[in-house]
Design brief:
Layout: E1 4-5, E2 10-14, H1 19-34, E3 41-43, H2 47-54, E4 60-65, H3 67-77, E5 84-88, E6 98-99, H4 103-111, E7 115-129, E8 132-139, E9 142-147, E10 154-160, E11 163-170, E12 172-176, H5 184-187, E13 200-205, E14 215-217, E15 223-227, E16 232-236, E17 242-244, E18 249-264, H6 269-282
Parallel strand pairs: 2-3, 2-4, 4-5, 5-6
Antiparallel strand pairs: 1-7, 7-8, 7-18, 9-12, 9-16, 10-11, 10-15, 12-13, 13-14, 15-18, 16-17
């Protein structure tokens, strides 16, 4: 657990595709103002507000939305070293500790110096073609190299630190952080990793007569995924896919930046969250 975190210049951001998020964001802004803290609020896609964030005007970003919106906030905040406090208005909340009905209670704890900062590793992905870099991205959850529109599996070859690991005939290959182990990688049958780990999980998607197990790479490893077929795409944290060509390579390593989350209580919150989701799903309730 890191040192106590006590913000003085928060901003409240709402996910624009959730109309109720603006109602909650305004209520949060008013609540903080009543406590003597000016906290403007607005949309995640408000360019003026995003520019203010990028100019380091704030020391905390409060995100009203779901896991997806917190993921998008992470892409904005990680390069700035700006912590995120998520309030869950969606269904799943693996990234978020606070539910909609609880934020006033947790805001009081925040202002009382009861919060701490958790650092989550991100991945850095680079698309290489014939030795030229065509693009670079950071991911909090995962980097996926997989099949495009057709149903045919793709052929991929994975190397770790320059040494061949294995080849896959599969719908795709996921390179995931510990954070992403409860996202797409979990749906593909992968293990759940504790969020503080700085390892990369390699998880094939629907492998065809090839390795079907996940592989956890040592901290500091770099994985290179070589494309051996057409009809292959690259997707980073679920963003729109990029078309890959035969012999293209995607290099994945730990990013130089981390996503910082504001947390409360002991680090065991992660397992309590996880148990709650598992119990809910086992009862047949909607996710």
């Amino acid at each position: 657990m890191s040192e106590v975190f006590l913000p003085k210049r928060p901003v409240v951001i709402a996910y624009p595709r959730m109309p109720e998020a603006f109602v909650e964001a305004e209520a949060m802004s008013i609540y903080l103002k009543e406590k003597g803290i000016d906290a403007p609020f607005g949309s995640l896609y408000d360019e003026e507000l995003r520019n203010r964030v990028k100019k380091h005007e704030f020391d905390l970003l409060i995100m009203a939305g779901g896991d997806g919106s917190v993921l998008r906030a992470g892409h904005l905040c990680a390069p700035l070293g700006l912590p995120i406090l998520g309030v869950n208005l969606g269904r799943l909340g693996f990234l978020i500790q606070i539910e909609r009905s609880e934020w006033r209670e947790y805001f009081d704890k925040l202002l009382n110096g009861e919060a701490w900062i958790e650092n989550r590793m991100m991945l850095h992905a680079e698309h290489v073609r014939a030795g030229d870099s065509l693009g670079e991205w950071n991911a909090l959850n995962e980097v996926v190299v997989g099949r495009g529109q057709t149903l045919r599996p793709v052929r991929l070859s994975a190397s770790v630190d320059g040494r061949h690991l294995t080849s896959y005939v599969a719908d795709g290959l996921i390179a995931s952080t510990a954070t992403g182990s409860t996202a797409y990688a979990l749906a593909a049958g992968g293990p759940i990793l504790p969020p503080e780990l700085r390892n990369i999980l390699l998880m094939p998607i629907a492998p065809h007569l090839s390795v079907d197990r996940g592989v956890v790479l040592a901290e500091g490893s770099t994985v290179s995924i070589l494309v051996r077929s057409e009809n292959t795409v690259l997707s980073v944290d679920g963003q729109p896919s990029i078309t890959l060509m035969d012999e293209d390579r995607v290099d994945v390593r730990a990013a130089d930046v981390t996503t910082q989350f504001v947390r409360f209580g002991d680090p065991g919150y992660f397992y309590r969250n996880l148990t709650a989701h598992m119990n809910e799903n086992s009862l047949g309730l909607p996710r």
